Amino acid sequence: MSADSTNPWSGFYKLPIAQRQNLLAEACHLTAEDLALLNKAGPLPLSVADTMSESVVGTVGLPLSVAPNFVINGRPYVVPMAIEEPSVVAAASHAAKLAAPDGFTAEYSGSIMIGQIQLVRVPDLKKAVRTLKTQKEALITEAQKHAGHITKYGGGVVDMDHRVLETKRGPMILIHFHVNVQDAMGANIVNTILEGVAPALAERLGGQVVLRILSNLSTARMASARAVWKADKIGGPEAVEGILDAWALAAADPYRRATHDKGIMNGIDAVALACGQDWRAVEAGAHSYSALTGAPLSEFSKTKSGDLEGKISLPLAVGTLGGSLKANSTASLSLRILNVKTSGELAQVMAAVGLAQNFAALRALTLEGIQKGHMRLHARHLASAAGAAPDEAPKVVELIDKSAEKPPASAGGVNAGRRVENSPNELQTQPSRFAAKKAANGQRGANCRATFVRAGCSSANLMLERKQVNEAGAADALKALRSRK
Of the residues 85, 107, 283, 299, which is catalytic? Predict the structure, then answer.
């Protein structure tokens, strides 16, 4: 593989996929079943994935869901979301439904990205600053020479500014080029321009160019959305007041704000993943903007009529052209499902989804606790992991729900030897193997255990509190279901 015989991974990226997989299998003790999984066909062929990334050995799948009910600027949308957490999709769709019929209004500031050039050890700072002011238009023209094909669509360098920064390494000049990237995300365009114009800057200003890179804090590429939820549709005045209290905490406390904004990004990231966007850049921009402003990404207030008004504003650098969109057929399909034509329209949809997700999370937290709905949907994961067939999974979840609702009762039939005490935290059982399992899995609720005992389960590993179900409990529910057949 390489002249470097001491490193088995040297040149790994140059190998064909099959050889990479074989080397990986040997080094990491993978089985034939593991290799079959790596080679399993999916929407993204391995051969295509190999052109998109480095050292590819397989692909990773995520559920592709859709959230209906969204009306944005008077137009209905079906929003694709790629995420493994079902409560995110359910919450966003339900929040959009509760905002009907008016839905969301959204705006977009434009597709301007900021590129930064760092100049250090400038011999004459004052002279360099004068040159930047007097030769601004000439430097913009020089930068525009490197804008490439984007100029055909009306894009390119639109402005330039600068700052002198005092740093621990001494004074530096930071030059910003503002680039209209149209419907592209824009990273490649901006970085090409910066690298092209950097030598001219060094020549005219003196000093040494170090960094030439875009900023992910794209404050000239803002997306915003607004919606009003009627109080009588969301739980009354109590719900409105609770959401306002929860938002006020996020505005006052950075620890809560981090989780508040993360809830927003649950929705935005899911759309970004489905539509082939650089979600890392989206995340970086959103959280940096929240830190810059010292405020949450969203804002809630009460209208004069007592309803709840929500607003959101954040930088969203997304694109409908370029990047890996042509290679990633599922991302292209998601954009067709969403039926957006421009990067601005995509950004507005994502902002609306973020606001919907935020509203839904705050409403759940203040009314019933986030876990109630979350854990019921999570039970579907566990049912599948326990081996439930697709037609069995809903019945397993139903059994889990019923077990949490029914009062303890004595068991009969095949389990007549067991008895359930009135204590909510203890279940007396024969033989002692259940006690060992109880010790291994922690305390369980008597209601859930009693249901599984009646159904014929050998054990009852279910966490009653807030319907949190572990893998063992799901397996018991499945066994109970099958014992009835």
Answer: 85
Distance of CA 264 to the CA centre of its chain: 9
Candidates 146, 176, 230, 262; catalytic one = 262
> Is 391 designated active site?
no
Give the start-end residues of each E strand in 337-423. Answer: none
How much is the average pLDDT of 17-25?
A: 95
Q: Where are the alpha helices (DSSP H) in 85-236?
A: 86-98, 125-134, 136-144, 187-205, 231-234
**pTM value?**
0.78
- Given 278, 345, 392, 476, the catalytic residue: 278
CA distance 320 to 332: 9
pLDDT at 447: 45
pLDDT, tens digit, 9 for 90 and up, residues 212-262: 999 999 999 999 999 999 999 999 999 999 999 999 999 999 999 999 999
**Is 232 an annotated catalytic residue?**
no
- Nearest alpha carbon to residue 208 among 117, 130, 144, 146: 117
pLDDT tens, residue by residue, 179-221: 999 999 999 999 999 999 999 999 999 999 999 999 999 999 9
Read off the pLDDT of each residue in 426-438 and give the average, rounded to a whole number: 39
- Of the pLDDT bands very low, low, confident and very high (cuts 50, 70, 90), residue 451 is very low
The answer on pLDDT for 21 being more than 60 is yes
CA 386, 391, 396, 401 dihedral sign is positive
Show the domains of the chain with their CATH numbers: 12-52 (no CATH), 64-109+223-369 (3.90.770.10), 112-214 (3.30.70.420), 373-483 (no CATH)
Query: Do 143 and 114 meet the contact criterion of CB atoms below 8 Å apart?
Result: no
278 is catalytic: yes
Q: Is 378 a catalytic residue?
A: no
Among the listed residues 260, 374, 438, 467, the single catalytic one is: 374
3-state secondary structure of 428: strand
How much of the chain is helix, strand and coil, in % rounded to 5?
50, 20, 30
Beta-carbon contacts of 470 under 8 Å, excluding residues fewer than 6 positions away, are 382, 441, 461, 462, 463
Q: What is the pLDDT of residue 4?
A: 64
Rg value, the chain, Cα:
28
298 pLDDT tier (thresholds 50, 70, 90): very high
Q: How far is CA 10 from CA 18, 86, 141, 400, in A?
A: 16, 41, 45, 51
Higher pLDDT, 375 or 424: 375
